[in-house]
């Protein structure tokens, strides 16, 4: 038993070493990725459930790694957040997304709103509202065409300060969305005080509706809550026509998910817009 313990320790140490090395090289190459333009923003349509047409798109960053291929954000956003690289990375994503949305507008697609995810560290940067304002004026995107996605846990860390930041952002004329709604612990009391425009129902609740009765009633509760607070409600992770018809029947405002379209490069999304793709 002792030997086994020793071996385990040795294996663990070796494992830890490789992990640390891998992490360090990942951090180094992520740093270069930002410089070398290896990052690319993909866009996933948000669809209006009444008209069936695209109302906007969410910006989702990807990393075109020279050796490893396309890497998803779950594999590098946490590292970027820990190391602070999220600040330049987030700034880059915002600028790129605003520029893209402006280009869609110039092609005659005036109604497309762009949604950009914020990380916790970005949200607490003192100059965030100023940075967002500068990005809007540099790219020429009208403020109403930009939405920022925050998560409940992000705004519940230090509520009073968060509400203050939300007001400063909202005063720019942009919109705010509460992402992954239902996973965190914001109360109705706070929800009422947040200057929000949108609630995004977390994907885990959209799973298996309507056959999962718990999820079905959670989704309906969120929809009516959103309605009474005057918020647009968006369901994400919609993969089937059963989910879609349930959401439509229960007056959800918008949907996003593979059923309509997975995230795609900006030019591919423009092509869908020009084709007039709808539900
Ligand atoms: P999120 O904000 O909740 O984004 C939705 C995720 O669900 C995306 O994963 C999207 O590709 C995926 N998705 C969309 N439709 C479906 C569907 O029908 N079924 C399933 N199973 N999944 C679907 P992705 O692109 O891998 O992004 C993961 C997370 O990474 C995002 O979750 C967001 O938290 C974060 N992220 C992505 N881009 C950025 C960014 O630019 N900045 C920051 N701070 N975070 C980002
Ligand atoms: Ca999001
Ligand atoms: Ca989400
Ligand atoms: Ca389930």
Automatic annotation (TrEMBL):
Gene Ontology MF terms: cyclic-guanylate-specific phosphodiesterase activity
GO terms under biological process: cellular response to nitric oxide
Ranges where the EAL domain occurs: 23-277
Protein name as annotated: Diguanylate cyclase
Included stretch of the parent chain: 653 to 931 of 934
């Amino acid at each position: 038993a002792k030997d086994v313990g020793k071996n385990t320790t040795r294996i663990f140490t070796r494992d830890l070493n490789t992990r640390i090395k891998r992490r360090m090289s990942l951090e180094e190459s992520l740093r270069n990725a930002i410089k070398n333009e290896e990052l690319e923003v993909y866009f996933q349509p948000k669809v209006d459930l009444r008209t069936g047409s695209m109302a906007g798109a969410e910006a989702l960053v990807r990393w075109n790694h020279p050796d490893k291929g396309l890497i998803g954000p779950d594999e590098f956003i946490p590292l970027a957040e820990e190391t602070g690289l999220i600040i330049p990375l987030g700034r880059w994503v915002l600028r790129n997304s605003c520029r893209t949305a402006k280009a869609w507008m110039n092609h005659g697609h005036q109604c497309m709103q762009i949604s950009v995810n914020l990380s916790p560290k970005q949200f607490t940067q003192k100059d965030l509202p100023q940075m967002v304002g500068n990005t809007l004026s540099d790219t020429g995107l009208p403020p109403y065409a930009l939405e920022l996605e925050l998560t409940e846990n992000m705004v519940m860390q230090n509520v009073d300060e968060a509400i203050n930041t939300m007001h400063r952002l909202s005063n720019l004329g942009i919109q705010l969305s509460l992402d992954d709604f239902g996973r965190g612990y914001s109360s109705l009391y706070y929800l009422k005080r947040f200057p929000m425009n949108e609630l995004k129902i977390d994907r885990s609740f959209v799973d298996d509706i309507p056959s999962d009765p718990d999820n079905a009633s959670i989704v309906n509760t969120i929809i009516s809550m959103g309605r009474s607070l005057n918020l647009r409600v968006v369901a994400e992770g919609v993969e089937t026509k059963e989910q879609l018809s349930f959401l439509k029947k229960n007056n959800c405002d918008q949907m996003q998910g593979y059923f309509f379209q997975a995230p795609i490069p900006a030019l591919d999304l423009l092509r869908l817009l020009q084709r007039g793709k709808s539900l």
